[in-house]
Amino acid sequence: MITLDFCYLHDWTILRFLRGCKFSLEKTKQKIDMFYTCKSLCPEWYTNRDPQDKKMREILEMGMFLPLPGYDPEGRKVVIIRTGAHDPKTTPMDVVLKATTFINDVMIEEDEQHAITGVVQLLDMNGVTAAHALQMSPPLAKKAMTIWQLAVLI
């Protein structure tokens, strides 16, 4: 069941969507629709996102996602993603992707410039094994790319 709280958009949130869509109202409406569609179809990434949760805390503390201080010369936030930092035997990829969306949402919430100039992600592939690659099944990769391309606020 969808509640009003689930659908309420603050002016600040609408502004972020507008910026990400270069102030095109039609694109903004589509992105907002896709944002809430993804939240409802993929609740495992958008619910129970407590940073004190044992598994979430473990991922945050292993330093998989490291936003660097400051910005690059073009004003973008730089984030190092250490893709091989987690143990694929004990940490499911869904949990990693949940943490990824959580951190991205926090960055968008706390840094207005993030939504204006964007972000640069540097992938550190040190320690990546076949087990890491096998965690990213084609359906999971498709879900992640759909959410990141069509539903993220920037």
TrEMBL record:
Domain named CRAL/TRIO N-terminal: residues: 10-35
| Matches recorded under Pfam families | CRAL_TRIO
Its cellular-component GO annotations read: membrane
Q: Which GO terms describe its molecular function?
A: phosphatidylinositol bisphosphate binding
The family database entries (InterPro entries) matched by this protein are listed as: CRAL-TRIO_dom, CRAL-TRIO_dom_sf, CRAL/TRIO_N_dom, CRAL/TRIO_N_dom_sf
- Tell me the protein's name: CRAL/TRIO N-terminal domain-containing protein
Give the originating organism: Halocaridina rubra (Hawaiian red shrimp)
